[in-house]
Design goal:
The chain is mainly α and 406 residues long. The protein has helices spanning 2-17, 23-31, 38-68, 72-80, 90-101, 106-115, 124-137, 142-151, 160-171, 178-187, 189-194, 197-210, 214-223, 225-228, 233-242, 250-261, 264-276, 281-290, 299-312, 331-347, 365-374, 380-400. Helix 1 (2-17) runs parallel beside helix 3 and helix 3 packs across helix 4. The model is unreliable at 1-55 and 401-406 (pLDDT under 50). Helix content is 67%, strand content 0%. It has 22 helices and no strands.
Amino acid sequence: MSKKLFLSNNVVLCLITTKSTTSKFNSTLLNQHSLFPISLRSFCTITAASESESNTHSFSVSYLINNFGFSSKSALKAFNNKQVRFITPDNPDSVINFFQNHGFSHENIHIIIKKAPWLLSSQPHIRLLPKFQYFLSKGASSSDIVSLLTSNPRILRSSLEKRIIPLFELFSRFLKTNKDVIVCLIKNWTTFTIYPYHLLEANINLMTDFGVSDSVIVRLTRSSPFLICSKDLIKSLEEIKGLGFDPSTTTFGYALLANNCTRKNLWDDKVDIFKKWGWSDEDVIRAFRCHPDMMLTSTEKINLVMSFWVNQLGWNSLALTKQPHIFTHSLEKWIVPRGLVVQFLLMKGLRKKNASLVTPFRYSEKLFLKKFVFSFEEECDYLLKLYKEKMELAYTTENNSMPFPN
């Protein structure tokens, strides 16, 4: 029994470590299953596979570390996720050469591989070249492609025929130029690949049939692609229309975005805050119709603006329902400096008591200073000092990452 086991172990050792010079002898033994148990034959196969995997692992990980500055952890992660699999430099070098030949700098390539190490395992002339040729044929310049793909190389992983071309043709219906389509696709590709094509197509057709203008669809596609991928888009469209918005207007798009970006419980929290400061439900709806972006303001900022307006300036919160865009401006750089200037003018009787409180917050900085600072000669120096002090404090606070004082 011991002799039989000894013979089997020698066979295993021979198969793993050397090329046998006695092939006839080994062939005979391999056919004698009683002399080469299944467990040992499995061990032989596993050991060989492990050695191959180890070699691949060692070279792939080293290549990422030595050529692209990956940390050991990130290189190992790329390998374990099966993003890189090569045992010689031939294929990854061919990918690097491909990018270089298409105008990518060393820095560009470095950035791309850090974002998409799987590219090093691809066959460039099969997987990459057709996409480059397609983008060029549609009007993108080489420099455009370099810039866009350096920023987001994920599109190179998708199928040209099954994904890129269908989406290109879909977006060509409302984006003005081919270049606009390419820019939109590459910049937002991550979002577009999460959802099935038929959902994107159905939602765009839905918005068109609903009366949403092409300009609004363009804006949403560029800035908020997740919205046109929504599975409940019809519900949002009907809700916004039900609030009195015209689907053909630009404001409809802003309202749709605000509605989709704010969870219902958060929306309700914001409504409650407005009501706490004296607004009614009707006031909130009226203000939202006027400036939908106000509902994108955080609950904290709504409270801060209201507190400054009511408690520090002593003004009625209902004035803000007429110009709710104020909530979207910076409290420190826009609302506080202007509010204190207008408050001073009212205290000095230099502004009529029945004059609009919110109008001064509509003007550009240049026009605001002209109308509410420089036009008052005797008070000009003090007003300008007051305004600049608050602006400087805002920038100092911002640079120091400190909370703005009440």
